[in-house]
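Forgive a beginner's question, but would it be possible to get a protein, spelled out as residues, together with the matching structure tokens, please?
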Amino acid sequence: YPNPSLNQLNIYSETTIKDVLIFDNLGRQISIIKDINKTKLLVDVSKLKGFYTLKIIMLDNSVLKKNIISY
């Protein structure tokens, strides 16, 4: 949250987050945050404008995809 977002995106999870990948609306990977190993994460989206997909990889290798809008 929040979604849409202006500067920051907060990610909370009940399980440990390993990596977060950010893809643009054409499916190109534009960013990766690796080795997080936390259940909370603050992502700077101030340079992103438009529609993006987050691929959140958990420590147990399960994957969650979330669409976000940044303006």
